[in-house]
Amino acid sequence: MAVLSAKLASSAALALILVAASLCLIEAKQSGIGIEIGSRGRPRQREFDYFNLALQWPGTYCQRTRYCCPNNACCRGSNSPAVFTIHGLWPDYNDGSWPACCTKKSFDEKEISTLLDPLEKYWPSLSCGKPSSCRGGKGSFWGHEWEKHGTCSAPVTGDEYNYFLTTLNVYFKYNVTKVLNEAGYVPSNTEKYPLGGIVSAIQNAFHATPKLVCRNGAVEELHLCFYKDFKPRDCVGGSSSSSDMLFSSSSCPNYISLPAYASLGAGNVESEVSWVPEDVL
Ligand code: 5GP
Ligand code: 5GP
Predict the structure, then answer these.
(1) What digits encode the pLDDT tens for the residues 170-179?
(2) N or C: which terminus of the chain carries fewer CB neighbours within 10 A?
(3) pLDDT per residue over 178-227, tens digit each?
(4) Is 111 among the catalytic positions?
(5) Is 143 in the pocket of ligand 2 (CB under 6 A)?
(6) Which candidate in 147, 149, 160, 220 is catalytic?
(7) Residues facing residue 215 across a β-bridge
């Protein structure tokens, strides 16, 4: 009887650990989550395989702007960004899944106070939305990226300051906007460009295949992938053959646009853009 209740107790404990693990990993993509049991018997996420530098294209993203607030770079008028800006540096697994919210280290903007100028310029929020932090509260875009992705990059990028600094450095070294402009892919509200041409321009420059994400036929995100030593590599789903690449970029049609930033409200006929205080949304 005693043996049976000990067994029941240990199965219940195991079940509790598994439930806790699944709650902690609620943000992580469900396929192939790399859970390991740590030395104290606690579940932890396996170290990632490679980095994904996710960039966003303001010309597309800002078309969706409904609200303006001081932190939304879509609302900077003629000073709004005209280059790919940073969404985040994301650690990924080779099977297409990724870890998320790996430690309890919460975001502290003071730690990155010396980086604020380049961050505001090249890693701005393009929305007034306050994303949720790993533990349920609402915070800044930078806080969200650090807690969700930066804490999982820590085995390579270290603390919060180094996560942001490393991301800026990689972003400056691999200047996608410059590569595309030099290949003739300039922002335009009338031109459509061949997806294969855009992919080839990046392959030629960085010797690796990016991943593109489109919305209504316009580039919204471009992902560049790196080994853990920051040498470029193909993104998962990317391939060196351009026909496979076209297939893998399934959210993009064969001809895509790279919209120029349009003043807010243009194209948003049904809704006016309104200014709101920072904490309303
Ligand atoms: P969406 O559903 O808009 O593609 O992605 C929502 C969020 O899921 C992203 O902002 C990001 O935090 C996460 N996510 C989407 N795709 C990836 C990916 O390939 N790698 C990682 N690490 N996170 C991703
Ligand atoms: P991810 O998709 O990276 O997990 O989460 C992005 C979250 O941050 C969303 O809740 C979104 O509303 C908010 N957010 C704030 N600024 C931005 C931005 O510039 N781009 C994106 N993709 N999301 C932003």
Answers:
(1) 999 999 999 9
(2) N
(3) 999 999 999 999 999 999 999 999 999 999 999 999 999 999 999 999 99
(4) no
(5) no
(6) 149
(7) 218
